Amino acid sequence: MAAGIKKSDLLVEAWPREVAPSTRLRQWCSHDPAKWEEFRRRNFRELDANPEAWEPLLAAARQGEMTLVYSSHDTEYNDAVVLRESPMATPKRPGRSVDVSPRRPAARRGSMGQITFWLSPAPPFRLEFTAWALRRRPANAIDRWDGGVYRRVLVVGARPREICVVQDGPRLGVTVRGERLSASTQAAVAATLERMLGLGTGLSAFYRLAAQDSRLGRLVRRFRGLKPPRFPTVFEALVNGISCQQLSLAVGLLLLNRLAEVCGLSVGGPGGTSYAFPRPEDVAELGPRVFQRLGYSSAKARAILGVARQIVAGRLDLETLSDLDDETVLERLTALPGVGRWTAEYVLLRGLGRIHVFPGDDVGARKRLGRWLHLRKALDYERVQRLLRRWRPYAGLIYFHMLLDGLAEAKMLRPATALATARRRISCF
Length: 429
What we know:
Strand order of the largest sheet: 3-7-6-5-4
Number of helices: 18
Structural class: alpha+beta
Radius of gyration: 23 Å
Shape: globular
Order of helices and strands: HHHEHEEHEEEEHHHHHEEHHHHHHHH
Strand content: 5-15%
Number of strands: 9
């Protein structure tokens, strides 16, 4: 790190500005840790499009160790880290290595650190209900809930971090365990949890609507504090949707668990190894036969691999779908091989947070809606949409409440009228 040092005072052999991220990309990222993964992907694309700028660096690296100097105070989220992790920097012959000089001595590789902090969700909030809406079934090995603690491995700064969340009254205690933790790690984890657990989503208008409708009011009171959950990325939402097509949810989650174990980054601990959901670059390296051994059909393997490889190649950016209206998103998604209306609406709700969307082709959800409304005749897509008009724009919230109602009926969770406020330690490792 070279902050505070004049360029003329640095003993450097080269100053290759051509490999720096573009001004447009830097302004878009604006040092926001929550945008780091997308910043890396876009920067890789820029580097891949300018191989001439890389050649002097590669030539120097072939001669032995090379040190990349940077001016940022952040040792984890900076341009030099992107250069080191770029596919172009992968060692191609023995003896070549690239070092990034840190602001302070880096943690010894393999040593695990831990940070804790608090989050304050918009009230009311129930971690148990929201975690189960993410988890969906006990077989989910990625989103874990043990009755008091929500756990998941998140990839932050290209490294896996074990996240643990507990509720203490109105606040959430968060513990992060992993290598090279920093303030930027905390900021990125907090931003991701806010998205996943809907922490900033205010539901006052929804509760007022429920108070005026006896049927909806009874359902909402049982699960008061449930927030609309979202997957950390649109890619994860899409892969979940494809994996669960025309299968029971339990079987779909089994496939996703196997996929994470094969190519997801992992964190070891006293309770065993936990896996992060695979990133596009993790999935893109697999072959169709690997998917088939995991239990995927050939069509689903092609669909998931196609999406992952398009993202890695820079031809597809799913996160930009958040800027588009529902109709355009549906058009873009259903244009992808293997993606139909149900999967696209699933992504709208669980990947983009469009809480007015009820995936009307979800057979299980249609059956639950019919039972809730005491209807004898099976529902089709069009009738589902007509029935839900009276509760606009909260069809997606009704979807989540009915999911929890089904879990409660199966004795997987207990509806509660009050939140226990017993004090507990934040740290859960």
